Protein 1
Amino acid sequence: MQNIKEYQLIVIGGGPAGLAAALGAAKNGLNDILIVERDKYLGGILNQCIHNGFGLHYFKEELTGPEYSKRFIDLLPETSIAVALDTMALNLENSEDWRYVHVMSSADGYRILRSRAVILAMGCRERTRMNIQIPGTRAAGIFNAGQAQLYVNIEGYMVGKKVIILGSGDVGLIMARRMTLEGAEVVACVEVMPYPGGLNRNIVQCLQDFDIPLYLSHTITDIKGQNRVEQVTVQEVDQNGKPIAGTEIYYDVDTVLLSVGLIPENELSREAGVPLDPRTSGPIVYENKETLAQGIFACGNVLHVHDLVDFVTEEAESAGHAAACFVQSGGCVKQDGKIISLKTDSNIGYTVPQQIRIDDVEKAVRVFFRVRKIFKEPSRIVFRDQSKSEIASFKRLFMFPAEMENVNLPRQLLEKISGTELTVSVEE
């Protein structure tokens, strides 16, 4: 019978979320932690993000992606955290007392590991052309924006000379600037939604500063080319996302970059029986980032897609603290305590957490959410219980979907809730 290596905590993923979660757990008393990372290096996606703009919230200074991740990697030698690089997590099993992680590596082969708790920090992946079903030929020259970023920044290859970008996510915007700086011509960025998908600072610094036009409510409806992309057709879309006849614009380009959304990597979560939220494609979690599968926690982009890595770090640290508490005491929460489910109106896409165990809230719980449309006028975020009583409200001068919002709900307010549901809405 195979010898199963035991740990107090296994963190799956060695990017910014995994690093912060492991360090958070170590800071709170765990001394037998393993980080499992499928790449040959720690740092995750930040290794290819050589632009600045990271760390403004967390470190109060501006860093590049590699500089940001190095701040946490440099702390590992001061702890007893072990790292398994070039190691793929194949399967996750959850039992009453143990979590079993099946891993494979070229150095150690197939192994089964077990731990009292597991933190999911696998990040997310990009939507592809197949996910959004763009018509046209299967020509070369079509890349996900992050894939192109890897080729240019890490591998040192230029992916094209004349480029159009579909989608206005932050990676696509940043690559518009990067390709321009490398000598390519970026003819346009087109976005199917009536609002940008990326942060406003990236709209300004990556498009406007380089005179790259942004066409909202537009999409690519055809790609032509034999061996390589030769031409794309762009059309305006109506309020239902349908192309409007007669609005065709033709661009002669050799490269299409796709920045059309991210999908949390939750195959392992599904196999372990972790319930997922269809709105986020990530796990449903309680206030301490524990999923509905006891002993399994989640943080970072595997939980919900963030716009700032600083928020990933803060969230992951709290997940590490909660996992340490779980390991040390067999769970810090009274299982028979009151649980509040968070609901949303049509103006809000989702909340994280989705459920709150009041007994586990020490002072306040931080609730993250995104709105579904732009709110240019002052409005209120309102929390109402099942009796329709207003529990809390928060003023906002403006909100838009690209930027994640958050509020703190004090425990003293949660204790006043009638019923077991709390509905979050926007009132203009």
Protein 2
Amino acid sequence: MMRLLQSIVVLAGLLSMANRVAAGADDVPPALKVYMGREIAQTMHFAGAPWLVRESREREEDGAAMIKQLKVQPGQTICDMGCGNGYHTLKLAKLVGPQGKILAVDIQPEMLTLLREAAKQAEITNVKPILGSLTDPHLPAGSVDLVLCVDVYHEFSHPEHMLRAIRKALRPKGRLVLVEFREEDENVPIRPEHKMSKQQVLKELTPNGFKLVEQFDGLPWQHLMFFEPSE
């Protein structure tokens, strides 16, 4: 069932290119299909949003353990990159409290509409939806304590542009956190292009100005890797 659901999501993603291009007001260079030997996966189309809040997700990914490792503090500003319909966004918003803020970035306006509806229903007011582009999340410079990318970095069609923008947005000692399905584990029932190995992650982030400062290996299916700017 998992592979069937994911196949539907990936097929829907093939329809999303027009939405992704329309989301960016800037001149978008050609999208990469391969980066440093890795196939870049299609962005999940908003039609697949129900998969993000599937009943089995907490059991499969242990999002509570992941969020605990982030050590979120009240008053922080956190970016949920590729926020989708807000599965992690709303939990983070409660942790940062009324003095904190969640910058929820997605390149599909339909996803942000779903997020707004979920936040309204939950009476959460410290979430700011941001329509990003393929090359720029449109985050204010030096404004973010932590950028969280859950199963999204491997879909960046312009990884170097995005990593440069993320570095610019981080505050001193700010962190980029990648959560990616483990390519090293063949038992993780996720399509290969939606997995990454630790070796590949380091191969890509190190030359783009990030250094690994911490990691957690206790999630069921995913790597959890913490990075800071290396300069």
Protein 3
Amino acid sequence: MEEKSLRITGTNKTFFTKITTTLTRLLIPTKISINGLLISRKRNNLLKMYENSISDNENYNKEELEKKYDLSYEAYLDSLDKYVMDSIYKKVKNGTASEFEKNAMAKYYEVTSLKENEYIEYKYRKQKYLIELDYEGIKVSSKEALMERYQKFYISKMDSLYKSILKNYSIKVADNTNIYDSTKEWIYTKIFYTLQDYIEKILSLKIQINYDEHLKEVVSEYEQYESYSIGKLDTRDNIEKNMVLLGISRKLFTHSLPLIVAEQCYEKLLKDARSLVQDTKIATKREKAYSMLINLIEDYNIKLLSTKVYWESPKLRDEYKKFWNKYKEISKLKETDFIEYVKQKEILFIKNDIKNLNKTKIDYSKLLKYYKRKLVDYGAIKVIRNTCKSEGKYIKVKEVA
């Protein structure tokens, strides 16, 4: 009897252990399911408030609607945040998470790491992260009616968040105190990364669903950007890609990335492009880098400086006016003699860049030498050989503009 009793007790213990383990495993999916329902309810309420807030119905109190929308938006984000911590975090911790969930958790930690030192950026990036996470879930669910409703909110909110992130970076670029690194290299990197992220996730979606007819102005530049999404990019490709990004930004982010900041971004690219031409030793690669630099100089002068209203000094403004008048004169050749137009335009850009290089503290002696060889080849400057020779038959060459 004692032996039998022990067997029964042991069996019961095993049985109850199995039941407990099963229940433990069920708790996590149940929690996900509860969160899913909560998110769905909060999302539906948010979309309703959003649609009311953009409605033209005069019977609605706009101020009251905006307050309700803000409250529903906060509740929606809270439910998403709770989902990450209650569901994804537990699955990662228990080793049952998918690759998507592991990546989602890693991104969550990446965003929250900004909280202490970069709170403003953290605030906008966390919203962006949570909304993107829900959007990916909606895409998987294949609910077309929900997707159509959500996309309108998604695009509108993402536009706002990206603009806020870029505006935050713009303030840092314009800051002349010693709080941030004077070179500000990391801020430029973040600006270009954010522009790239926007174009790939939001602009591409807008173009795909024909969101706005005004986007026709940037479609050609977007297609140009797409060409850099294939294959591995070298330094020259990356500079060209960032040049295209800045060109698009002048049409989409004129307020959050103002001209004064865009100008500094262009100057950063010019610095990188000049260094590339100067440091590249293989002739064919140097020629490609040089061609890219000429295109960048044109972009900088035509897309940005030609729209500049406020100059640091009247002298700089007058200098640019002279350059601009010469450029317009040369542009007349485009229809009648395209080859001559390209040649004269290149000469103008080289001479103008030489003036700029002479004002910098960076050693561009190799690039200046390369520029002058180009001007000699184009017949823009002459080489005068004097008759004085040294013992080793050395002939001094003087270049005259």
